[in-house]
Specification:
Elements lengths: L3 H11 L8 H17 L3 H13 L6 H15 L2 H8 L10 H17 L3 H12 L5 H17 L2 H14 L7 H13 L3 H8 L5 H13 L3 H14 L6 H14 L3 H14 L6 H14 L3 H14 L6 H15 L3 H14 L6 H14 L3 H14 L6 H15 L2 H14 L4 H17 L2 H12 L8 H6 L1
């Protein structure tokens, strides 16, 4: 990721000691350099470099000794201690602009490795905008990668474009190509993302290449790419994600039996992974699609027992449970499952759908007032929801059944304004016509229909036939 610093460290270690008053400090730092060259980074080397700083604080060797002590800590993986040591370099005697820049860059690397990305951006930005020479270019590259980690995509694009414009060969760096790929991927520009990923040979690049194919619906090609990744990188840390993605590709391409086998393989290979509960849920959806509702409910009950209370997967489990109960005619239990969604996940992805199912359930059960009340709750909770029109349609039917034709016609008139030329609009026209039929107002049926039909698209629709 940062190729300039090792060269800098070698250069620092090779510097000749000063003569005269600095000979003793030079001898100490030479001894520390020999220890580092012989044994590699160690706490003994750290102590040797620190001894130079302690005994010769005002020596021109102090800044280099401080840098080398910090570098040893970095190599040893003690990032917090390394960061603290690098922080002392700029104030040390003999700190040159290049030493200050290298220390600042290393502090950014420490912060990045510790996932403190905002602080990393500050350190990298300071070097990128300073007089760090070639280190400024490395800092700009690191800053671009940090913007990716932070999800600041436009900042990434501006930084990366500026870097490539000034130094075109940086555009060929694998880490920058990968970052450009992620940038395009999150924007939904899948072909552009894939073009970048395919120029990088790494596990993650191959993984995202396959992901772009899967999201384009090219499931067979995606499966092929995922499998090639497992062959090329048999010890990959992405194995769980890859196997789960293969199973999902089978499921989305309609190959349910292969999907079932693939999800079972995920559970067998990674029984305690973060994908285990999701794989079990997918297996339950396959049972549901196979119309094996009893086994679906057994699987979902076991999932609810094992899933943590705050796990968002529970929302999907409850929704599928409610649908399975409906298929078995156990509507009160379905209602209970949907109510559980509203209680535990009032702003969840399926909460509006759950409440809609309850509105529909009470309407089917001829509990018109309860259906109307829940419909009002829906409109208050989810204004602008795509299901709002269908809720209003059910409410208008409820009102017609209760003999409240005025409120029903008011709702249907609004629906016709909002949904002209759609299936929903055609249903509203039919119910409006039916309401006048129930009232015996046949003249109004004819005049009203002629007026409204002119506003609807002339698209063939089965509900228009019912209206006729």
């Amino acid at each position: 990721m940062w190729k300039g610093l090792p060269l800098l460290v070698c250069a620092l270690a090779a510097l000749a000691p000063a003569a005269g008053a600095q000979e003793t400090a030079g001898a100490l730092i030479d001894a520390a350099d020999l220890l580092l060259a012989k044994d590699g980074a160690s706490m003994a080397a750290v102590d040797a470099y620190r001894a130079v700083c302690q005994k010769f604080e005002h020596s021109e060797h102090a800044a280099r000794a401080r840098t080398m002590a910090a570098e040893c800590l970095w190599r040893l993986g003690d990032l917090k201690a390394a960061d603290a040591e690098f922080a002392r370099v700029p104030s040390a005697t003999g700190a040159t602009p290049i030493l200050r820049a290298s220390a600042e860059l290393r502090r950014g690397q420490c912060a990045f490795a510790l996932a403190d990305f905002p602080r990393a951006a500050l350190h990298f930005g300071a070097v990128a905008g300073g007089e760090g020479g070639y280190l400024a270019r490395d800092a700009q590259l690191a800053l671009a990668q940090t913007w990716v980690a932070l999800g600041e995509w436009e900042d990434f694009k501006a930084t990366a474009d500026r870097l490539v414009a000034a130094w075109p060969r940086y555009g060929e760096r694998p880490e920058l190509r990968f970052a450009y790929g992620v940038y395009h991927y999150q924007r939904g520009e899948l072909a552009a993302a894939r073009a970048q990923f395919q120029q990088v040979e790494s596990e993650r690049a191959r993984y995202y290449t396959a992901r772009t194919l899967a999201e384009e619906g090219q499931h067979l090609k995606a499966i092929q790419q995922f499998r090639q990744l497992l062959v090329r990188y048999p010890e990959t840390a992405l194995a769980e994600d890859v196997r789960f993605a293969i199973a999902e590709c089978f499921l989305r391409s309609g190959q349910r039996q292969l999907a079932r086998s693939a999800f079972e393989d995920v559970l067998a290979a990674h029984p305690t992974s973060e994908h285990a509960l999701a794989a079990r849920f997918k297996l339950a959806t396959i049972l549901f699609q196979d119309e094996d509702y009893a086994r679906t409910l057994d699987s979902l009950a076991a999932l609810l027992a094992d899933a943590p209370a705050a796990d968002p997967l529970r929302e999907k489990v409850l929704m599928l449970q409610g649908l399975a109960y409906f298929q078995l005619g156990r509507e009160s239990e379905a209602d209970h499952a949907f109510s559980a969604i509203l209680g535990a996940f009032p702003k969840g992805l399926t909460s509006s759908s759950a409440l809609f199912r309850m509105v529909h359930h009470y309407a089917r059960g001829e509990n018109w007032n309860q259906s109307i009340g829940l419909g009002h709750m829906f409109m208050d909770r989810y204004p602008g929801d795509p299901l709002a029109g269908r809720v209003q349609l059910i409410q208008s039917l409820d009102q017609i059944e209760l003999g409240n034709l005025g409120p029903a016609r008011e709702l249907l008139g609004k629906l016709l304004d909002q949904a002209a030329g759609t299936d929903l609009g055609e249903k509203a026209l039919f119910l409006l016509t039916w309401s006048y039929h129930e009232d015996g107002d046949h003249d109004r049926i004819v005049t009203n229909y002629r007026h409204l039909a002119r506003r609807l698209l002339p698209t063939p629709n089965p509900w228009r036939a019912h209206t006729y």
